[in-house]
Amino acid sequence: MTEHVPAAAEGLPDPFQSGPFRHVKDMEEPLTTATDLARGIAILAEKMDDGLGSSVQRMAWMIMDEVEKAEGLRCTLWDITHPNPARIAQRYEKEATQ
Predict the structure, then answer these.
(1) Distance (Å, rounded) from C-alpha 36 to C-alpha 71?
(2) Backbone angles phi, psi at 19, to 5 degrees
(3) Mean pLDDT across 18-45
(4) Angle at 56 between CA 37 and CA 36, to 5 degrees
């Protein structure tokens, strides 16, 4: 579903197709992939011997922690750059009343 964006109606570039918001949107899949890979490595590390396995598992958990921080920043950028700020405001109002 395409949202109504005043800028697009005025002949300006579609923010869903280019610009900062699109870059923020495009960050989601790489971050999800990094998390999935780190989880897989952590699972594989459980089958390794104690010394090496625990080190590898610790690194995997560190990766997941850093990706989680990056995802939090991405979510903030999503809100800041969203082409329809009224939609974001409605979401926060709805969350506040729950």
Answers:
(1) 13
(2) 95, -175
(3) 94
(4) 10
Q: Band the pLDDT of 3: cuts 50, 70, 90.
A: low
Say how far apart CA 56 and CA 16 lie, in whole Å.
39
> How many CB atoms neighbour CB 38 within 10 A?
19
92, two tokens: 């926060």
Q: Determine contact, residues 65/59, Cβ cutoff 8 Å.
A: no
Task: Write 33-41 long-range contacts (CB < 8 A, 24+).
Answer: 34/63, 34/67, 35/64, 35/67, 35/68, 37/63, 38/63, 38/64, 38/67, 39/64
Global confidence as pTM: 0.72
Q: What is the pLDDT of residues 59-98, one digit of tens each?
A: 999 999 999 999 999 999 999 988 888 888 888 888 888 8
